[in-house]
Structure formats: C-alpha cells, structure tokens
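Risk register update: the risk of archive-format incompatibility is retired. Evidence:
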Amino acid sequence: MAREQNPIVLIVGQDSLRSDRALEGVLKARKVDPSEIIRIWGDESSFPDVLAAAASRSLFSDKTVVVVRRAEKLRGAGGRDPEEDPQGDDDADSPEMVEEKPKGKKAAAKAPAGDLPDLDPSSTLVFVARKVDRRIGMWKKVSKVADVIDVEYFKGRALNMEAAAEAKRLGLKLSDEVLQETVEQSGPALGRIVSEFEKMVLYQDGGTGKGAVDLVAVTSAPPLYLLSDALMSKNKRKSLGYLDDALRQGEAGLRVLATLHGTVRRLAMFRAMRAAGVPSTEAGTRLGIMPFKVMDTDRAARAWSEPEIARALAVFAEADRRLKLSAPAVPVLTHAVVQVVGGRA
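Archived output:
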C-alpha cells in the first residue's frame, strides 16, 4: 500500500536549480496541474495568510496547492522558543531588563507563532526558502511535521560528481581537467555550471568542428548571462563591470548588444504574457527561459515599467545604429547601459 504523502513540504537551500527541480518533483509526484497552484511571495505575505490559503477550498478544483517562494521572508514567524533560551526567564523577572514592546511589523514578527492547520491529503503546502532558522516559532513547527528537502550547494567531490552527471546528461564528453576548470570558474551554483555546459553543446552543434576543450578559453571570461542578469535587476555597478569584462576579453560589440537587447525584449514579452493571464512557468517555456530563471525573470518583469522598457529598447536601437556605422563599441555600449540603468546603484 502506498504511503500517504505529507501535505507540507519544506525545500530549503541556496542552489536555485536544485530548488526548482525539487519543487517540480514534488508537484509531479502529487499530479498537480499548474493552473491549480496558488503562488505566494514571502516578502509580500505572512504565515497567517499562507496557512489560511492552504486550509481554504476552491470551487473550481478538488485540490488546494500553495507554493510559497522566498518563504524565509514571511512575516509572523514568531520568536525563539523560551525553552531553548535559558536566559529568557531570568531576564523576564528582572525589572532592569524590561524592554520596550515592539510595534508594527516588528511586533508581528516577534508575536507568538500560531498552530499549523490539519491539512487533508487533498492539500499541498510547499515552502521554498534559501535559509530558515528552525529554532524559531513557525519554522520549528514546520520543520517537525514537513518533508524537508535539502537543496544547499554541493561542495568538493560531491559538486564535481554532480557536474559530471549533468555533462553526461547533455551528451558532453569532458576530460577531468576541463570539468574541474568549468566548476572552478562557475562556482558552486549548479545552474551556472549547467549553463556553461549548455553553451558548450550549442558551440559544438554550431558546425565549428571544435570540441569542449577548445571552448574553455571562450567560457573563461564572465559569461554574458551574468550581464543579462545584472541588467534585469537594474544593477548599474555589476552591469558596467560585466560589460567591461566582456569587451576587454574580446566579445564582439554587436553580440554584447544582442544580449542586452534580447534581455529587455524578453522582459517585455514576459510582462505581456503575464498581463494576459499566462502562468509564469508557461510564459518561461514559450520564451525559452531556463526553468531555474523563470522566477528571477518574473520578479524582474514586475520591477520594470512599460516606459522603462520602451526607453531601453530605443536606447539599444540607437546603439545598434551607431555600432553598424563603425562607432567604437566601448563608449557606445557603456553610454547605452548607463542610460538604461543609470538610476540604480
């Protein structure tokens, strides 16, 4: 007889690709349709709101599926359990140690945590968090009853083994030296490593006749997706830094511009789809966005306004015109990036 699935799941760790895959596995195991999911952002909600949503019933579905992204930011988690703080009782009895009661959001954060509702098997509540303190209020209760899935960064040998498995899955045959160098350049985030491998596959399939060993020199510079990410988040310092690195490493100006323009155009299309009611996952699939980047794109799309997108596209169109008239790439692209993200540090 199959074991009844736990209605509460906690996915915790900093590796976004592992986190997305874990969430996909949880939803697939429960045969959840994307249209049935209630998506909540932790920095925009609280534990009482989340628990109320999980305990509610929809008129249009026999399931209640709540997925909470950035759950570590949920308000109303409560405070440290007094039993785990031996100093707590002594401090409370001492008149000299009486503290001013917090107000507003601070009061809500330190208020005693409520109880978890009894969810039936037709309900699913998934918390997705980078890091939580399991000694505190609601997180202590959630950790005791939930299925906890660890998605922290792999380290050392485990990271190399996982990277080798990803390369094999993509059909890449890499030497130990190339594999190690790729891991060292990309860092512990599995998503970045996979992105580098995918570029190797595209490079090999492009008819160049070169293998992955030849590609190491190409990928040794900061990859252009980092520039794209910095532009999406309107981070001026990082955008200019990655732009400078790319141009100094010999990236063609028009190729860099294509990355910048494509990033903004993709945001515009993503915004349009979301406004039309298309779920973020489906919008990401239609636009060819990697699953682990969909949430970042969704967040960025909400941060950009229509006038900002229109202005950015106009700025990059002018940069394209100037580059095709043989203007030097460094000042043209630097000026364009400053115009687009100049208002953000």
